């Protein structure tokens, strides 16, 4: 049987990434050029800086992805690309590069939703079994997504304000941690105790929605108040208390959703899915659901990368969902 080889592009935020993926389940190469250092001194991603870096990096990323995979353009079956959601200028670089390669080499073009890509990072662990529920937690999104069958995504709950990763980054800044702060806050949290008991917003209501801005404000007010009276708070305990509040809400809502939507699989994906506290807590919660398997995106594929776009693109390929030269970036794309 002929190999299906997809050249995949991801450039929605601050990683320029190109991958070659075989049959939607094997990574032949996954080049990720991160720009984090350039954005750190601004405390977050600067869209203009991101676009410039993507332009500078993308051609080298394509060359490296092909050579590392030991394939040429002639071996490819299709080109997949993130076309939203994300920063418009950043997305446009990937979309333009993908359209150019598709046109020059007469290959089908597959538009991929970045969030579908995050979910499909889990495909590198095991096949997705439907129906499935995904807890999607990233720097820009916090969503519970119901997947009835391949190619179908229905948001059943989402954040009403800050995304979980965004809250991590903002409270991290108050602790003097560089952007993106999630990984370091996670590390500190394991060294401390939940002594501050921050609020768990919307934890007990009936919706599957989330809210993290109240928690973020409570955290920042606590630290500022201590500063004003010359008191120094324990950083590990602050981190542990913040993380416990986030994990409690994410886990409680996910359990409630699993009760309301019987599924075969729970998928954990997105940058915040790398969080050890969250992975451990959901593993424990899942013992209540012996018929549900827990598919965690591999930690190294939780952040933005093109391999996940190749896996999601393969599903679209099989469903004959192709784009054309008119494909444009859609910064606020939804499922
Ligand atoms: O999915 P992603 O790479 O980019 C977006 O599409 O947003 O997610 C990045 C987010 C950042 O906010 C970062 O702080 C957070 O993921 N993050 C974590 C951890 N590792 C990364 N948050 C909590 N715990 C972690 N271990
Ligand atoms: Zn992402």
Tally the structural domains: 2
Number of helices, where a helix is a run of at least 4 consecutive DSSP H or I residues: 10
Return the string of H and E elements.
EEEHHEHEHEEEHHHHEHEH
Q: Sheet bearing the most strands, described? A: 5 strands, mixed
CATH evolutionary superfamily of the largest domain: ATPase, nucleotide binding domain
Find the count of extended strands (DSSP E, 2+ residues).
Answer: 10
Specify the CATH architecture of the largest domain.
2-Layer Sandwich
Structure description:
Its main location: cytoplasm. Its cofactor is Fe(2+). It catalyses: L-threonylcarbamoyladenylate + adenosine(37) in tRNA = N(6)-L-threonylcarbamoyladenosine(37) in tRNA + AMP + H(+). With 335 residues, the protein is an alpha/beta fold. The chain has two domains: 133 residues, Nucleotidyltransferase, domain 5 (2-Layer Sandwich), CATH 3.30.420; 168 residues, ATPase, nucleotide binding domain (Nucleotidyltransferase, domain 5). It has ten helices and ten strands. The strands form two sheets. Strands 3-2-1-4-5 form a five-stranded mixed sheet, sandwiched between helices. A five-stranded mixed sheet has the order 8-7-6-9-10, sandwiched between helices. The chain is globular. Bound molecules: 5'-O-[(R)-(carboxyoxy)(hydroxy)phosphoryl]adenosine and zinc ion. The site of zinc ion has 5 residues, from helix 4. Zinc ion binds next to helix 4.
């Amino acid at each position: 049987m002929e190999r299906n080889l997809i050249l995949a592009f991801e450039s929605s935020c601050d990683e320029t990434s190109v991958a070659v993926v075989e049959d939607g389940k094997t990574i032949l190469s996954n080049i990720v050029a991160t720009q984090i250092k350039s954005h750190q001194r601004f405390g977050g991603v600067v869209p203009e800086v991101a676009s410039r870096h993507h332009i500078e990096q993308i051609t080298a990323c394509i060359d490296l992805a092909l050579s590392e995979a030991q394939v040429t353009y002639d071996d490819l079956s299709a080109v997949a690309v993130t076309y939203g959601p994300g920063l418009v200028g950043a997305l446009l670089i990937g979309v333009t590069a993908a359209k150019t390669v598709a046109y020059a080499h007469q290959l089908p073009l597959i538009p991929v939703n970045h969030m579908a890509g995050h979910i499909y990072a889990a495909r590198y662990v095991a096949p997705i079994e439907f129906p499935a529920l995904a807890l999607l937690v990233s720097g820009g999104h916090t969503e519970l997504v119901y997947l009835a069958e391949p190619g179908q995504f229905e948001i059943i709950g989402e954040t009403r304000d800050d995304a979980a990763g965004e809250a991590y980054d903002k409270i991290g800044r108050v602790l003097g941690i560089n952007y993106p702060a999630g990984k370091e806050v996670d590390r500190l949290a394991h060294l401390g105790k939940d002594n501050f008991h921050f609020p768990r917003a919307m934890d007990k209501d009936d919706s599957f929605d989330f809210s993290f801005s109240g928690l973020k404000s409570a955290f920042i007010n606590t630290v500022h108040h201590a500063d004003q009276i010359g008191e120094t708070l324990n950083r590990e305990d602050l981190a542990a208390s913040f993380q416990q509040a986030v994990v409690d809400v994410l886990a409680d809502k996910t359990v409630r959703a699993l009760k309301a939507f019987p599924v075969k699989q729970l998928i954990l994906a997105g940058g915040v899915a790398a969080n050890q506290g969250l992975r451990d807590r959901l593993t424990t919660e899942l013992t209540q659901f012996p018929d549900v398997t827990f598919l965690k995106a591999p930690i190294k594929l939780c952040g933005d990368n093109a391999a996940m776009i190749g896996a999601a693109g393969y599903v679209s390929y099989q469903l004959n969902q192709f784009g054309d030269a008119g494909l444009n970036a859609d910064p606020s794309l939804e499922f």
